[in-house]
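Homework help board

Subject: predicted structure for assignment chain

Our instructor gave us this sequence and asked us to write out the predicted structure in C-alpha coordinate form, then describe one feature. I got the C-alpha coordinates but I'm not sure how to describe them. Can anyone check?
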Amino acid sequence: MRYQISGKQIDIGEALQTHVRTEIDAVIEKYPGRPTDAMVVFSKSGHEYCCEAVVHLSTGLTVQAKGVAPEIYAAFDQSNTKMEKQLRRYKRRLKDHHKERAQPVELSAASSYILAGSTETDDESEPESLQPMIIAEMETRIPSLSVGEAVMQMELAGAPVLVFRNEKQDTGVNIVYRRDDGNIGWIDPGSAN
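My C-alpha coordinate output:
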Protein backbone atom coordinates (compact mmCIF):
# COMPACT_ATOMS: atom_id res chain seq x y z
CA MET A 1 0.00 0.00 0.00
CA ARG A 2 1.21 3.49 -0.84
CA TYR A 3 1.24 6.07 1.93
CA GLN A 4 1.27 9.84 1.62
CA ILE A 5 1.74 11.36 5.07
CA SER A 6 2.18 15.11 5.21
CA GLY A 7 1.66 18.18 7.35
CA LYS A 8 0.23 21.57 6.48
CA GLN A 9 2.83 24.04 7.71
CA ILE A 10 4.05 21.61 10.40
CA ASP A 11 6.86 19.08 10.37
CA ILE A 12 5.93 15.41 10.57
CA GLY A 13 8.64 13.32 12.19
CA GLU A 14 9.69 9.82 11.21
CA ALA A 15 8.28 8.36 14.45
CA LEU A 16 4.79 9.73 13.69
CA GLN A 17 4.95 8.41 10.11
CA THR A 18 5.89 4.94 11.39
CA HIS A 19 3.07 5.08 13.95
CA VAL A 20 0.56 6.05 11.22
CA ARG A 21 1.65 3.22 8.88
CA THR A 22 1.56 0.62 11.67
CA GLU A 23 -1.86 1.64 13.01
CA ILE A 24 -3.55 1.93 9.61
CA ASP A 25 -2.15 -1.46 8.57
CA ALA A 26 -3.49 -3.00 11.80
CA VAL A 27 -6.99 -1.60 11.18
CA ILE A 28 -7.15 -2.38 7.46
CA GLU A 29 -5.94 -5.99 7.68
CA LYS A 30 -9.06 -6.91 9.71
CA TYR A 31 -11.41 -5.98 6.88
CA PRO A 32 -11.80 -6.97 3.22
CA GLY A 33 -11.18 -4.53 0.42
CA ARG A 34 -7.41 -4.58 -0.14
CA PRO A 35 -6.32 -0.95 0.32
CA THR A 36 -4.40 0.63 -2.54
CA ASP A 37 -3.26 3.89 -0.98
CA ALA A 38 -3.68 6.05 2.10
CA MET A 39 -3.36 9.80 2.48
CA VAL A 40 -2.98 11.32 5.95
CA VAL A 41 -2.73 15.10 6.40
CA PHE A 42 -1.94 16.79 9.71
CA SER A 43 -2.61 20.46 10.39
CA LYS A 44 -2.76 22.77 13.39
CA SER A 45 -5.45 25.28 14.19
CA GLY A 46 -4.86 27.30 17.31
CA HIS A 47 -3.95 24.87 20.08
CA GLU A 48 -5.49 21.81 18.40
CA TYR A 49 -4.10 19.37 15.86
CA CYS A 50 -6.28 18.02 13.08
CA CYS A 51 -5.73 14.73 11.27
CA GLU A 52 -7.59 13.88 8.06
CA ALA A 53 -7.15 10.30 6.82
CA VAL A 54 -8.39 8.88 3.50
CA VAL A 55 -7.91 5.22 2.49
CA HIS A 56 -8.81 4.03 -1.02
CA LEU A 57 -9.86 0.39 -1.32
CA SER A 58 -9.38 -1.70 -4.47
CA THR A 59 -13.15 -2.16 -4.70
CA GLY A 60 -13.47 1.55 -5.51
CA LEU A 61 -14.72 2.57 -2.09
CA THR A 62 -13.08 5.29 -0.04
CA VAL A 63 -12.95 5.50 3.76
CA GLN A 64 -12.45 8.95 5.31
CA ALA A 65 -12.14 10.13 8.89
CA LYS A 66 -11.12 13.28 10.72
CA GLY A 67 -9.81 13.67 14.25
CA VAL A 68 -9.14 16.80 16.33
CA ALA A 69 -7.22 16.80 19.62
CA PRO A 70 -4.71 18.90 21.60
CA GLU A 71 -1.91 16.41 20.75
CA ILE A 72 -0.94 15.22 17.28
CA TYR A 73 -0.87 11.49 18.15
CA ALA A 74 -4.29 11.76 19.82
CA ALA A 75 -5.71 13.46 16.70
CA PHE A 76 -4.48 10.59 14.53
CA ASP A 77 -5.73 7.95 16.97
CA GLN A 78 -9.16 9.61 16.97
CA SER A 79 -9.39 9.56 13.15
CA ASN A 80 -8.09 5.98 13.04
CA THR A 81 -10.74 4.90 15.56
CA LYS A 82 -13.47 6.53 13.45
CA MET A 83 -12.16 4.77 10.35
CA GLU A 84 -12.17 1.42 12.15
CA LYS A 85 -15.74 2.01 13.35
CA GLN A 86 -16.87 2.75 9.77
CA LEU A 87 -15.17 -0.38 8.45
CA ARG A 88 -16.59 -2.54 11.25
CA ARG A 89 -20.08 -1.19 10.60
CA TYR A 90 -19.86 -2.10 6.91
CA LYS A 91 -17.77 -5.28 7.16
CA ARG A 92 -20.48 -7.65 5.90
CA ARG A 93 -21.50 -5.29 3.12
CA LEU A 94 -17.87 -4.80 2.09
CA LYS A 95 -17.49 -8.59 1.80
CA ASP A 96 -20.67 -8.84 -0.28
CA HIS A 97 -19.62 -5.88 -2.43
CA HIS A 98 -16.27 -7.50 -3.10
CA LYS A 99 -17.79 -10.90 -4.06
CA GLU A 100 -20.42 -9.50 -6.42
CA ARG A 101 -18.08 -7.22 -8.33
CA ALA A 102 -15.88 -8.99 -10.87
CA GLN A 103 -14.50 -5.74 -12.30
CA PRO A 104 -13.31 -2.71 -10.35
CA VAL A 105 -15.70 0.23 -10.05
CA GLU A 106 -15.82 2.19 -13.30
CA LEU A 107 -15.01 5.88 -12.88
CA SER A 108 -16.08 8.65 -15.28
CA ALA A 109 -14.19 11.94 -15.51
CA ALA A 110 -16.00 15.17 -14.72
CA SER A 111 -15.19 18.78 -13.89
CA SER A 112 -15.70 20.07 -10.37
CA TYR A 113 -15.96 23.80 -9.60
CA ILE A 114 -15.74 25.80 -6.39
CA LEU A 115 -17.94 28.89 -6.50
CA ALA A 116 -17.46 32.03 -4.43
CA GLY A 117 -19.91 32.41 -1.58
CA SER A 118 -21.65 35.67 -0.81
CA THR A 119 -19.38 37.94 1.23
CA GLU A 120 -21.98 40.67 1.50
CA THR A 121 -23.48 41.12 4.96
CA ASP A 122 -26.22 43.46 3.75
CA ASP A 123 -29.24 41.36 2.72
CA GLU A 124 -30.65 44.13 0.56
CA SER A 125 -27.61 44.50 -1.71
CA GLU A 126 -27.97 42.89 -5.12
CA PRO A 127 -25.18 41.02 -6.90
CA GLU A 128 -23.68 42.72 -9.95
CA SER A 129 -24.48 39.70 -12.13
CA LEU A 130 -26.23 36.39 -11.78
CA GLN A 131 -23.11 34.51 -12.91
CA PRO A 132 -21.23 33.06 -9.91
CA MET A 133 -17.49 33.61 -9.64
CA ILE A 134 -15.49 30.38 -10.12
CA ILE A 135 -12.65 30.18 -7.59
CA ALA A 136 -11.21 26.78 -8.54
CA GLU A 137 -11.70 24.15 -11.22
CA MET A 138 -10.68 20.56 -10.54
CA GLU A 139 -10.95 17.13 -12.09
CA THR A 140 -13.19 14.67 -10.25
CA ARG A 141 -14.41 11.12 -10.85
CA ILE A 142 -17.98 9.85 -10.83
CA PRO A 143 -18.24 6.14 -9.90
CA SER A 144 -20.69 3.65 -11.44
CA LEU A 145 -22.35 2.01 -8.43
CA SER A 146 -25.62 0.45 -7.35
CA VAL A 147 -27.80 2.60 -5.08
CA GLY A 148 -26.85 0.49 -2.04
CA GLU A 149 -23.15 0.83 -2.81
CA ALA A 150 -23.58 4.59 -3.26
CA VAL A 151 -25.24 4.92 0.16
CA MET A 152 -22.46 2.82 1.71
CA GLN A 153 -19.78 4.96 -0.01
CA MET A 154 -21.45 8.16 1.21
CA GLU A 155 -21.55 6.77 4.78
CA LEU A 156 -17.92 5.58 4.64
CA ALA A 157 -16.77 8.96 3.39
CA GLY A 158 -18.86 10.83 5.96
CA ALA A 159 -20.16 12.99 3.11
CA PRO A 160 -23.58 14.68 3.06
CA VAL A 161 -24.06 13.90 -0.66
CA LEU A 162 -22.70 11.54 -3.34
CA VAL A 163 -23.03 11.87 -7.12
CA PHE A 164 -22.84 8.56 -9.02
CA ARG A 165 -23.93 6.72 -12.15
CA ASN A 166 -26.49 4.01 -11.45
CA GLU A 167 -24.96 0.83 -12.89
CA LYS A 168 -28.31 -1.02 -12.80
CA GLN A 169 -30.05 1.49 -15.08
CA ASP A 170 -28.45 3.83 -17.57
CA THR A 171 -30.37 6.86 -16.33
CA GLY A 172 -27.48 9.28 -16.20
CA VAL A 173 -26.23 10.88 -13.03
CA ASN A 174 -27.95 9.97 -9.74
CA ILE A 175 -27.56 11.57 -6.32
CA VAL A 176 -27.93 10.18 -2.79
CA TYR A 177 -27.94 12.60 0.12
CA ARG A 178 -28.57 12.74 3.86
CA ARG A 179 -31.84 14.45 4.67
CA ASP A 180 -32.40 16.73 7.66
CA ASP A 181 -34.62 14.06 9.24
CA GLY A 182 -31.70 11.56 9.21
CA ASN A 183 -32.99 9.46 6.31
CA ILE A 184 -31.28 9.05 2.94
CA GLY A 185 -32.71 10.72 -0.17
CA TRP A 186 -32.13 9.43 -3.72
CA ILE A 187 -32.54 11.50 -6.87
CA ASP A 188 -33.02 9.38 -10.01
CA PRO A 189 -33.66 11.43 -13.16
CA GLY A 190 -34.70 8.32 -15.13
CA SER A 191 -37.79 7.67 -13.02
CA ALA A 192 -39.32 11.12 -13.63
CA ASN A 193 -41.63 10.14 -16.50
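Reply (TA_rk): Your C-alpha coordinates look well-formed. For the description, you could write something like this. The longest helix spans residues 72-89. That's the kind of observation they're looking for.
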